[in-house]
Design brief:
The complex is a heterodimer. Chain A is an alpha+beta fold. In chain A, 57% of the residues lie in helices and 19% in strands. In chain A, helix 3 packs antiparallel against helix 12, helix 3 packs across helix 14 and helix 12 packs across helix 14. Helices cover 34% and strands 28% of the residues of chain B. The radius of gyration of chain B is 17 Å and the shape is globular.
């Protein structure tokens, strides 16, 4: 015959603790009653645990959110990718702003050729040019990065076509005036009409819109919402993007970029702003990056490029996160330790205060074990109540932070669970000593205590 | 040796306290027999060993030498847990300062010994209610001790002492903190209990209280000076 669960549980508790489930229930009730009798004291006692648990959960949530965000950004670059960017060398920055020479720097098509011919594992190289221009449709204007790319750009970046298509090899080879708009700018320029098939103007050239791509995935969809303002051509955050064939970019806008800043004009000559190298095998990424570095170093007089390896960034982000977790863990352990000591302190005072009660209970038949259990239950009740309050508060704080500070926070399932169990463990660990002290009082002495 | 209705048999009980280098003898060879239904008053000046004797009778303390049989069972050298069980099942205590647990109600105070005997909640509640009515506190079941007068508190304590239907009730100066009227009430209850056949041992200073007892044992310097039985 299968015993009823109640009686089974009762037998287990009886075997383990020497108490039946009914006794356990009664003890819990008694413990709650005596804690409730000193509400304020109980509350103040558990504050340490409350804040400990709450800060663990909140900090974990914030840390997790931040690291997720960072990793997401890196992952968007692609872990198999190596990104090479043109960087203006610092020493020339000074001289040119004054004399308005045309500065030449950055990646060249020749570099790309060299990389392609030297390294066997390289799959795709997608060079890109970035030019900041105003885009017009009739009298509507939007500030945007006009990016000259190759058709296979979509394979290696996170850019996804939403409607229409990306431009083709043929359009690249014949440097045709076609473009693909990001959704945000498309909505700005064509608020009512369907942009596909329409034309937009950049400087003197018209480009036919062939497709719309999704905004670069900002988790909150912020990229889509932050539209270019009609009056000030300074958009907030990342500017919108418009993609055109790389060849068209070169032929329409030339390689010399003129920048007008207050009081001076500077011109730069940059062939390519960016190139993405895709490495077939993940484990070759770092080595390939080193080879590329060497190729570029031997062909460039100055360091006018930078090499970004998302994989390395990802690994360092993971390392940072581990360090963060260790620091957080120590802070949490420390705060729970302090909380536990606080509880122990109060429980010791309580035991002394209730010496008489202990004596009475012993005279009326309580075993040492009963007294230990009574005080242990009170301590555990205190600490778990603190744990529950802390969890609630700890869940509320990330929510509020996300709501008001617009920071991403992630509450993992295990963080409240762990924080709560630790608070229960703290209760047992720090409750044992006061409980033993209570149980080991001499009943005669305890009864005489005033 | 012992006739059937012997409840307590003390054989040459001594109790010595070690105070640093000095040892103090509180009891120096006490031999006594209490029979069922007896109403005994233990008297004597301060420091004569009354309290020590009561603690040993109540199994709160163990004799240094000698044997103590309670209801035929040798309890003189039992382990702590076993003594707790004996106290809970066989002994009822009434103290001078009532010794109720302040945060518990009248009913809950009466239930405490039942709780440690593992009596199920429902049964113990019924028993406590019955006892509270027995001592005339049926109206005040949910009051806290500090809402009661001294006499009422002592009645709760008596109800609590009766909860487990003990072999013997030990009372330590039960009227010491009470005014004359309440003291008389308490003594009347003891009289009733005696009439019902309970065994009562009462420690007192007062001749007036002792007069009501059936038998008086007088201690001096840890020895029996006088026993009205012999």
């Amino acid at each position: 015959m299968i015993p009823k669960p109640e009686s089974l549980f009762s037998r287990i508790t009886e075997r383990v603790l020497g108490f039946s489930a009914a006794r356990l229930r009664q003890s819990l009730k008694m413990g709650m009653k005596s804690l409730w009798a000193h509400r304020l004291r109980s509350l103040l006692t558990v504050l340490g645990i409350v804040f400990g648990v709450c800060s663990v959960i909140a900090m974990l949530a914030i840390g997790e959110g931040a690291s997720y965000e960072a990793q997401e950004q890196i992952r968007r670059l692609g872990s198999n990718n190596i990104i090479i960017r043109s960087v203006k060398p610092p020493e020339e920055q000074v001289t040119t702003t004054e004399r308005s020479f045309v500065v030449e720097y950055g990646l060249r098509h020749a570099d790309i050729q060299r990389i392609r011919s030297t390294i066997p594992g390289v799959k795709v190289i997608a060079p890109a040019r970035v030019i900041r221009r105003n885009v017009w449709v009739a009298n509507r204007r939007a500030d945007c990065d006009v990016i000259g790319v190759v058709p296979w750009y979509t394979d290696i970046s996170s850019v996804r076509v939403k409607r229409g298509r990306f431009f083709t090899d043929e359009e690249l080879n014949r440097d045709m005036n076609v473009c693909v708009l990001e959704e945000g700018i498309a909505q700005d320029l064509f608020p009512i009409t369907d942009p596909i098939g329409q034309s937009v103007r950049v400087d003197a050239d018209y480009f036919r819109v062939v497709g719309i791509v999704e905004p670069r995935s900002d988790p909150n969809g912020k990229g889509a919402e932050e539209k270019t303002d009609q009056n000030t051509s300074q958009p907030q955050g990342a500017p919108n993007r418009m993609y055109i064939p790389l060849t068209s970019s070169k032929s329409r806008f030339g390689e010399v970029l003129v920048r007008r800043s207050t009081g001076s004009i500077s011109a730069e000559r940059v062939e390519l702003h960016e190139a993405t190298v895709v490495v077939a095998d993940l484990k070759d990424v770092v080595e390939t990056a080193q080879i590329i570095e060497e190729i570029l170093r031997s062909n460039h007089k100055k360091k006018d490029y930078e090499i970004i390896v998302p994989l390395a960034l990802l690994r360092s982000a993971e390392r940072t996160k581990r360090i963060f977790n260790v620091v957080l863990g120590s802070v949490a352990a420390l705060s729970l330790l302090v909380g536990g000591i606080g509880i122990m302190n109060i429980m010791l005072a309580t035991v002394t205060e209730r010496t008489r009660e202990i004596g009475i209970r012993r005279a009326l038949g309580a075993r040492k074990k009963d007294i230990t259990f009574q005080f242990l239950i009170e301590t555990v009740l205190l600490s778990t109540t603190g744990g529950i309050l802390g969890v609630l508060l700890g869940l509320a704080i990330p929510f509020l932070i996300t709501h008001f500070a617009e920071m991403r926070t992630i509450v993992t399932l295990w963080s409240p669970l762990i924080a709560f169990s630790i608070s229960a463990v703290v209760g047992v660990v720090f409750g044992i000593y006061p409980a033993f002290r209570a149980a080991n009082m001499d009943p005669v002495e305890a009864l005489r205590h005033e | 040796m012992s006739d059937d209705n012997t409840i307590v048999r003390l054989e040459e009980i001594t109790r010595t306290y070690q105070m640093g280098a000095v040892s103090v003898s509180a009891l120096r060879g006490i031999s006594l027999v209490f029979r069922a239904g007896e109403y005994i008053a233990i008297m004597g000046p301060s420091g004569c060993g009354k309290s020590t004797l009561l603690n040993i009778l109540g199994c709160l303390d163990r004799p240094s030498t000698g044997r103590y049989y309670l209801g035929g069972l040798d309890v003189s050298q039992l382990k702590d847990d076993e003594l707790s069980a004996i106290r809970g099942a066989r002994i009822g205590f009434v103290f001078q300062s009532y010794n109720l647990i302040q945060q518990l109600s009248v009913l809950e105070n009466i239930e405490v010994p039942l709780y440690y005997q593992g009596v199920p909640e429902k049964q113990s509640r019924e028993r406590a209610r019955y006892l509270a009515e027995l001592v005339g506190l049926g109206e005040r079941l949910d009051h806290k001790p500090n809402e009661l007068s001294g006499g009422q508190q002592q009645r709760v304590a008596i109800a609590r002492a009766l909860a487990n239907d003990p072999l013997i009730i030990l009372a330590d100066e039960p009227t010491g903190n009470l005014d004359t009227a309440s003291g008389k009430e308490i003594l009347a209850i003891f009289g009733d209990l005696h009439a019902q056949g309970k065994t009562l041992v009462l420690v007192t200073h007062s001749d007036e209280v002792a007069e009501r007892a059936q038998r008086v044992v007088r201690l001096r310097d840890g020895k029996i000076e006088y026993d009205s039985e012999t």
